Amino acid sequence: MFGYRVPAPDQAMLISGGKRGLSGAPFRVVTGHGTFVFPVFRKVRFLTLAMCEAEVAETCVTRQGIALTVRAVIAFKVGNDGESIVNAGQRFLSDQDQMSVLTGRIFAGHLRAIIGSMTVEEIVTERQKLATEVLDTSKAEMAKIGLTVDSLQIQSIDDGDTGYISAMSAPHRAAIQRQAQIAQAQATQASVEAEQQSARRQAEYARETAVVRAQYSAEVDRAQAEAAQAGPLAQAHAQQEVLDAQTELAQRAALLRQQQLVAEVVKPAEAEAERIRVLALAEAERMKIQAEAAASYDRVALDRMLIDQLPQIVKEAAGGLAGANVNVLNGADGLGEIAAGLVSQGLTILDSVRRGLGTPQDGATTPTRVAPDSSGPAEVEPGR
Question: Does pTM surpass 0.90?
Fold first, then answer.
């Protein structure tokens, strides 16, 4: 649109010809947005807010009186606040390149002042401390002209032809050289030791190789000798195996024949002997039983025959008393006693007959034969 102006992101638009700006400034500051500007009645100028750079190469004298050439780089810009923009606009709007020139001069002055209060050793070993002190002392002065410093870098410090810094570093260089020489000597010694160890390893390898070769040759010779003897040894071994097999077969055949003999001869003979023994025992037992039965039968027959003759014996005894003059004093009791005596006499006679015939009392009897006689007492004859 005609009359509408917009500043760039890194610019501040300064509008003059109207009402005053912030804090009575002769212009109005616009940043970050556009605004309508009346042509002819208003004038617009732009102030850069981008980063700027200033270089310093200043000869400074230290507290020891030694001249040093110090080179530094300063990074700065116009502040973002309205006051800084107004201060920078009033000073540098017509010639903005002067900001770098003025900044370099300001820092050169502060470098001379601060280096003058330090020794060479402090400057060389504490560069960051030097840069911090220069920044701190220049902040207030830079703020007055609307500038802010982002960084200060000390690039180099040179003492010219005095050789002070070189002399100061000589002990360090000597120490470094000594360390380098020691390191070199250690490296050389390590190399020599490595070579010696390599030589020892090579000698050991050669010795082991010779031993291995000798062992290999011995193994080859032994294998060849074994191969030469393999035929006879194998044949002898095979014959020995055949003999062992034949011996084992003969032993098994003998054992089998022994078992056959036991099964065919010994066992049947033992069975026949056992059969005969059992039959003999059975026959003996049968004969014993028959003998005992026969003896028992004869004894029973004899006893029966004697018992059958007992009444006849008693009768004959009583007949003997028929002609006798016997007085019975006690009547019936006396007769009973006489009868009892006759019976007892008959039993005694029977027992005497048994003893006379040799009949044992334990049952082992001799067969007898009793023949009765009708005319008198029984006559006992030994049996045939």
Answer: no
